[in-house]
Design a protein that fits this description.
- Helix content is 35%, strand content 26%.
- It is built from 9 helices and 11 strands.
- A hairpin with an 8-residue loop joins strand 3 and strand 4.
- It is globular.
Length: 298
């Protein structure tokens, strides 16, 4: 089996096992495996499966466990990491779709995707610098600025938001800043090493944010949004934030409660929903949205 096919097999195994409630036996796996192009019509040998199982654990941090008391059924032992905004969840979904599209090249004109603005070489360099705990020299050009700013910063974390990659860094003065990768003109890994704060948690750092705006001084607030029409069903299926909960349902609309910072990127999203989404509270946010709509109309 070619390396690409082996990698595809890893993704297929994880996706197939996770979609089977209660686990799946090797025989049941093989019933589906032999129908794929990767198998060549041949079943997967037990030793091959065990090698794939070990490789999946090493590459993705996913543990395929066997329930001996339930007929030797295999399941994802740490499936919780495949939910929410975890790296494993994003990686598995991305690679699963990639495999699906690759196997369907005869339909390439009927499967349309959106690109993510990213220099893969730069992304790889930043990941390597993060892994080695090395500071990076960056030439950065913010929007609405003609000149290029230079920084030597400590790369703390990478975040994908709204199809753009962002880098969270710690500056020499100790302050944190978020940089958009597509605005970085040049990056160079330095010899200087740094020590990351042992109490730093990237998910917790962004937990009160809608996207990546963090340093504008805005404090978290209880926000109530009223969704109309199809927007209410979209918000149920795709929550805007992990704190979202359904507050009330009435004829023609649904109220949702969230606790987060009413930053500019949240306001931009609310504006984009037009009349289908209303800010019930706080009044200050409702006033901001109304003012911004009036300015746009003018």
């Amino acid at each position: 089996m070619k390396k690409y096919d082996i990698f595809s097999a890893y993704i297929w195994l994880v996706d197939t096992i996770r979609r089977k409630p209660g686990g799946i036996t090797l025989a049941e796996l093989n019933e589906q495996w032999v129908t794929t192009d990767m198998s060549g019509g041949q079943p997967m040998l037990r030793n091959t499966f065990l090698r794939h199982k070990a490789a999946i654990e090493q590459m993705f941090g996913l543990y395929i466990e066997c329930d001996l008391r339930n007929g030797y059924r295999y399941y994802i032992g740490n499936e919780h990491v495949l939910h929410g905004d975890s790296l494993q969840n994003w990686l598995l979904q991305t690679l699963t779709v990639s495999n699906l599209v690759s196997e369907s090249m005869n339909m390439q004109g009927r499967i349309l995707i959106e690109s993510v603005a990213c220099d893969s070489n730069m992304l790889q360099q930043l990941v390597e610098a993060m892994r080695q705990f090395r500071a990076v020299y960056i030439e950065y050009q913010p929007y609405q600025t003609a000149g290029v700013h230079t920084y030597t910063v400590e790369p703390y974390c990478l975040k994908l938001s709204r199809q753009r990659w962002y880098l969270l860094v710690r500056r020499s003065d100790g302050r944190m800043r978020v940089l958009a990768l597509d605005r970085i003109k040049r990056v160079k890994t330095t010899a200087r090493r740094f020590t990351i704060d042992p109490y730093f948690d990237a998910a917790d750092y962004f937990s009160e944010c809608f996207g990546v705006v963090t340093g504008d001084g805005t404090q978290p607030q209880r926000i109530v949004l009223r969704a109309f029409g199809r927007e209410q069903y979209a918000m149920r299926d795709l929550p805007l934030h992990h704190t979202q909960r359904l507050l009330d349902e009435a004829d023609g609309h649904t109220d949702f409660e969230l606790t987060l910072r009413p930053t500019d990127d949240l306001k931009a999203y609310l504006l984009s929903r037009g009349r289908w989404l209303k800010v019930v509270s706080p009044q200050s946010l409702a006033d901001d949205i109304r003012r911004l709509h009036l300015e746009a109309a003018e």
